[in-house]
């Protein structure tokens, strides 16, 4: 692993369903693990994660194994009652002794160009100027009150005062995948952003009663029958979870997280902070 200059990185625990301080986990004696095969390490990883890191009822399974910077990388799928909640990756040293989740650059510098290339914005909902030289990609959760604050208060000011293209990426935090699917179903009928705003405006309502998702479709004048068929088909579930997986790989740890021309901006910053960032980019 390259530990020099801007590539210096630290591995830290980041759970799909919560966060913890960074540390490495020694989950077995060195003598035993040195003799372990990869398949035995896989078994130890799954047992450790399920027993020690997840809430009751949530299970992890390995969906892919690869190597990166001298580590084994185990891609995990998290599920509850047969429903996929999300994905994350754990890193294990080649001797099988230490387990980590997540990787951070300690230099404080963001590889903007790399982030821009990694983010897939094709066929994603967007608004603003399609030819703008500034693109804001937001990883957001409809269940997140800070995301609602950005969507309803800060975003309108940005769009009013700057030429930007804003792209929305799904990052459900608490299992509210259905709300994200519903927005995509509304998008089929040309009402993505209207439905997006309603979900944020009435968070408390649909959190308690998911049937409200159909009511919102009716209120917005959608063909409710077509909307319901779309929603019940789970046709957008894979797409929603793919967005989240992409965010995790980019280092997204919570919502909202923004990539402004590739530069990471975390949290619901006040408009004034976005104004400063956007003015600097306009002057370049």
UniProtKB/TrEMBL annotation:
Entry keywords, A to Z: Disulfide bond, Electron transport, Oxidoreductase, Redox-active center, Signal, Transport
Boundaries of every Thioredoxin domain copy: 79-283
Superkingdom assignment: Archaea
The keyword Oxidoreductase is annotated on this UniProt entry: yes
SUPFAM superfamilies: Thioredoxin-like
GO molecular function: oxidoreductase activity
Record-linked PANTHER family: DISULFIDE BOND FORMATION PROTEIN D (PTHR13887:SF14), GLUTATHIONE S-TRANSFERASE KAPPA (PTHR13887)
Family as reported in the entry's similarity comment: Belongs to the glutaredoxin family. Belongs to the thioredoxin family. DsbA subfamily.
Name of the featured protein: DSBA oxidoreductase
Native organism: Ferroglobus placidus (strain DSM 10642 / AEDII12DO)
């Amino acid at each position: 692993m390259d530990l020099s200059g801007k590539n210096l990185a630290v591995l830290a625990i980041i759970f799909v369903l919560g966060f913890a301080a960074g540390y490495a986990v020694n989950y077995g004696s060195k003598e035993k693990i040195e003799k372990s095969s990869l398949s035995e390490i896989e078994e130890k990883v799954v047992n450790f994660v399920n027993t020690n890191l997840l809430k009751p009822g949530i299970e992890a399974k390995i969906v892919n194994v690869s190597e990166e910077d001298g580590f084994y990388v185990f891609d995990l799928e998290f599920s509850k009652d047969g429903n996929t909640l999300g994905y994350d990756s754990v890193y294990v040293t080649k001797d099988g002794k230490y387990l980590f989740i997540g990787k951070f650059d300690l230099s404080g510098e963001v590889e903007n160009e790399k982030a821009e290339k990694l983010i897939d914005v094709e066929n994603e909902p967007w608004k603003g100027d399609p030819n703008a030289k500034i693109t804001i990609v937001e990883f957001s959760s409809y269940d997140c009150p800070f995301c609602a604050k950005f969507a309803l208060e800060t975003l309108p000011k940005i769009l009013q005062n700057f030429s930007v293209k804003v792209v929305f990426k799904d990052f459900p935090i608490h299992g509210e995948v259905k709300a994200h699917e519903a927005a995509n179903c509304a998008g089929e009928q040309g009402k993505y952003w209207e439905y997006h705003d309603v979900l944020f405006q009435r968070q408390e309502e649909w959190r308690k009663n998911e049937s409200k998702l159909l009511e919102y479709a009716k209120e917005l004048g959608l063909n409710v029958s077509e909307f319901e068929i779309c929603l019940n088909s789970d046709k957008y579930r894979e797409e929603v979870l793919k967005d989240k997986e992409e965010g995790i790989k980019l280092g997204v740890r919570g919502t909202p997280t923004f990539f402004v021309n590739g530069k990471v901006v975390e949290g619901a910053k006040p408009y004034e902070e976005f104004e400063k960032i956007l003015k600097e980019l306009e002057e370049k």
